[in-house]
Write a structure and sequence with these properties.
One of its GO terms (molecular function) is ATP binding. Its main location: cytoplasm. Keywords: ATP-binding, Cell shape, Cytoplasm, Nucleotide-binding. It is built from eleven helices and 18 strands. With 335 residues, the chain is an alpha+beta fold. The protein has three domains: 150 residues, Nucleotidyltransferase, domain 5; 92 residues, 2-Layer Sandwich (Nucleotidyltransferase, domain 5); 69 residues, Actin, Chain A, domain 4, CATH 3.90.640. A hairpin with a 4-residue loop joins β11 and β12. The longest helix is centred in the last third of the chain and has 24 residues. The chain starts with 5 loop residues before the first strand and ends with a helix. The model has no long low-confidence stretch (mean pLDDT 88).
Length: 335
């Protein structure tokens, strides 16, 4: 009876989500794996492994097997998927013998990268595996009518990549993918703190700073935040106070590249669909859509309405699961 359970997997650089058509999102865990370096055994996956980042002894490393939206370490990704499928089947209270799975891949990924994703999911015992393009999944998850002949513009700002696509009639009309996402923004914050204060902070601290006082390039009331790190001069712990304006400055270069991708995609748009975009606007989704002020900044820069997806973090996973309903039509459009 459960032999053909249907799952949608959002194999993200920062988070891995599993969606079931009956129960919605059943799992949302960081894409982090804790490994024993000597035996290559997987010790923890997800939130538990993320809490170990930067805090482990020499023989244990917490790694992220996906970089820039693609698989960087195949074996570790397969182990992570196995652990995640096990957890998901526990959540669903069923034995997932041979589920049908839809996984999303960045639209700019190569056939080799896609093959790696297919093989990793198949090695977990999936029966049929379909690949769907990430922006299409994000559009479906954000409740856009992707199978109608109208322009749906999606800007999906993920952990490793930002995907910008115009989707009409189930297929991608024009798209651009830049390998800039939440990770790049965290990195910009780490570099800024290092250069300006001679203090080294970790990835988790940088992410915290981005979420609390990170801003898109718009005017805002200045916020401050106390941050602890290691002084690079004397090696001792040090507390510094950061201001939202300097973090905004540190993030602006990466954000301008994202804007450039949005503009390039809109420039490629057929004139018939341009009219739709003026009326319907652009939908932003993905974790990066939660950055303070990004919606206002985009609408200022591209002069069309900009909407925030109802659940930006979950859009891709939800869309991936829902896409099973019209996978045939989507595959015709992508062939």
């Amino acid at each position: 009876m459960w032999s053909n359970a249907e799952l949608g997997i959002d194999l993200g650089t920062a988070n891995l989500l599993v969606y079931s058509k009956d129960k919605g999102i059943v799992l949302n865990e960081p894409s982090v794996v804790a490994l024993n370096t000597e035996t290559r055994d997987v010790l923890a996956v997800g939130a538990e492994a993320k809490s170990m980042v930067g805090k482990t002894p020499a023989n244990i490393v917490a790694v992220r097997p996906l970089r820039d939206g693609v698989i960087a370490d195949f074996d570790v990704t397969a182990s992570m998927l196995r652990a995640v499928m096990k957890k998901a089947s526990k959540q669903l209270g069923l034995s997932l013998r041979k589920p049908n799975v839809v996984v999303c891949a960045p639209s700019g990924s190569t056939s080799v990268e896609r093959r790696a994703i297919l093989d990793a999911v198949r090695s977990c015992g999936a029966k049929n595996v379909h690949i769907i393009e990430e922006p299409v999944a994000a559009a479906i998850g954000a409740d856009l009518p992707v199978d109608e002949p109208v322009a749906n513009v999606v800007v999906d700002i993920g952990g490793g990549t930002t995907e910008v696509a115009i989707i009409s009639f189930g297929g991608v009309v024009s798209c651009n993918s830049v390998r800039i996402g939440g990770d790049k923004l965290d990195d910009a914050i780490i570099q800024h703190v290092r250069k300006s204060y001679n203090v080294l902070i970790g990835e988790r601290t940088a992410e915290q700073i981005k979420m609390e006082i990170g801003y898109a390039p718009i005017e805002h009331e200045e916020l401050t935040m106390e941050v602890r790190g290691r002084d690079l001069v004397n090696g001792l712990p040090k507390t510094i106070t950061l201001h939202s304006t300097e973090i905004q400055q540190a993030l602006s270069e990466s954000l301008l590249q994202v804007l450039e991708a949005v503009r390039a995609t809109l420039e490629d748009c057929p004139p018939e669909l341009s009219g739709d975009i003026v009326d319907r606007g652009v939908m932003i989704t993905g974790g990066g859509a939660l950055l303070n002020g990004i919606q206002d900044w985009f609408s200022e820069e591209i002069s069309v309405p900009v909407h925030l997806a109802p659940n930006p973090l979950e859009s891709v996973a939800v869309g991936t699961g829902r896409s099973l309903k019209f996978i045939d039509k989507l595959q015709k459009a992508t062939v």
